[in-house]
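About this split. The held-out portion is used to measure sequence recovery: a designer receives only the structure tokens and must propose an amino acid at every position. Recovery is the fraction of positions where the proposal matches the reference. Here is one held-out target exactly as it appears in the evaluation file.
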């Protein structure tokens, strides 16, 4: 990883002022000033000229000669270290920059380059304090902050890494690498938390629920149901245990079993509007009583008026009961919230047909057909991408 252009410019400017300024003490200042002889000044001019012509080898040679004549000139070490760094000679860069910082600790660019050099050499623990110092001196240095985040992730200091990445993303909200790193960091924090739960008690209700969620996310529903059943057996009256089981049944279309579990969840948690909506949804999917489903949906929406899925299902129940006019307000709210959802357009078409609004019904059916076609094309595109990857792998 290369130093940013701004960082390189800062480093190249240090010597001009550093010859007289970057000195650690009055005694050393006198020593360094005494060392700035005409020969040293001539070597500096030659090194600067070589740099301007892109002749890094000559510039390095001149700075090395300067250091022999002026061994206490901290800025010379900084500039030589920068040249080594830019040539990707991180071993020599680290050696030189470390010596310069011993002479003058307050050189943020040297701290940054030394930390980056150690990072390139795989020495994360040695890199960390120097990059922290550099970032403290320049809190908005993107390059330093990203590398420090990398190092903290490597050192498993995920909380701090997440903090730095969030700071970086406030300034660079479209940086994909930072979002990717932040996602991986949060994932690792999650994994560590789950591991801790199992260390505390692998046979707890929470442990079984988490194991079930993991299996459910991988579509291993049979295994997930076993884990959820263990949680229910341990805490049948605890809110959430039946909800996990109910949701798994709901996902695989076992509507009667889902209804039983949603009802059990509502007995433990009467105000759970999501459970009430999904109970009604399972009733509609199983072609059970639309009146009973409507009653559940009315209660769900009363508690959670912004739950648009419940409003769509209430409209569906009303349409089944022949009350198309009553269904329209819910659908109009839902379409504003989710204009790309095909089902809402289909239901709106049904309402408009019942009201004799042929043009509106046709328009909604066209929208429904277009959205369905786009969804099918997206699925086909994903399948083609997967096949391409498989073929390339072979």
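Reference sequence for scoring:
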């Amino acid at each position: 990883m290369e130093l940013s252009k701004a960082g390189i410019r800062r480093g190249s400017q240090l010597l001009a002022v550093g010859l007289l300024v970057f000195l650690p003490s009055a005694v050393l200042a006198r020593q360094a000033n005494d060392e700035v002889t005409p020969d040293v000044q001539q070597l500096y001019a030659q090194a600067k000229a070589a740099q301007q012509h892109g002749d890094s080898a000559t510039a390095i040679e001149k700075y090395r000669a300067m250091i022999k004549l002026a061994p206490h000139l901290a800025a010379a070490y900084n500039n030589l270290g920068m040249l080594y760094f830019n040539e990707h000679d991180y071993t020599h860069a680290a050696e030189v920059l470390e010596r310069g910082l011993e002479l003058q600790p307050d050189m943020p660019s040297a701290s940054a380059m030394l930390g980056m050099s150690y990072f390139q050499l795989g020495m994360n623990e040695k890199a960390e304090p120097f990059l922290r110092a550099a970032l403290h001196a320049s809190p908005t240095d993107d390059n330093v902050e990203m590398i420090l985040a990398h190092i903290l992730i490597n050192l498993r200091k995920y909380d701090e890494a997440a903090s730095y990445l969030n700071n970086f993303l406030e300034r660079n909200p479209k940086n994909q690498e930072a979002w990717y790193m932040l996602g991986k960091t949060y994932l690792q924090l999650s994994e560590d938390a789950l591991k801790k739960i199992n260390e505390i008690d692998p046979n707890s209700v929470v442990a079984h629920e988490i194991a079930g969620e993991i299996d459910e996310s991988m579509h291993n529903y049979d295994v997930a149901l076993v884990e959820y059943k263990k949680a229910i057996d341990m805490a049948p009256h605890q809110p959430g245990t039946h909800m996990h089981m109910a949701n798994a049944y709901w996902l695989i279309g076992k509507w009667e079993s889902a209804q039983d579990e949603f009802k059990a969840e509502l007995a433990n948690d009467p105000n759970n509007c999501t459970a009430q909506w999904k109970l009604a949804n399972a009733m509609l999917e199983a072609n059970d009583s639309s009146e009973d489903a409507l009653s559940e949906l009315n209660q769900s929406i009363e508690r959670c008026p912004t739950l648009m899925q419940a409003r769509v299902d209430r409209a569906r129940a009303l349409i089944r009961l022949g009350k198309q006019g009553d269904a329209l307000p819910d659908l109009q709210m839902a379409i504003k919230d989710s204009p790309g959802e095909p089902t809402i357009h289909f239901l709106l078409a049904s309402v408009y047909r019942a009201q004799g609004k042929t043009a509106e019904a046709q328009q909604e059916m066209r929208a429904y057909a277009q959205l369905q076609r786009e969804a099918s094309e997206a699925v086909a595109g994903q399948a083609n991408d997967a096949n391409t990857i498989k073929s390339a792998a072979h």
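Annotator remark: Residues 5-123 form a domain with the Serine Threonine Protein Phosphatase 5, Tetratricopeptide repeat fold (CATH 1.25.40.10).
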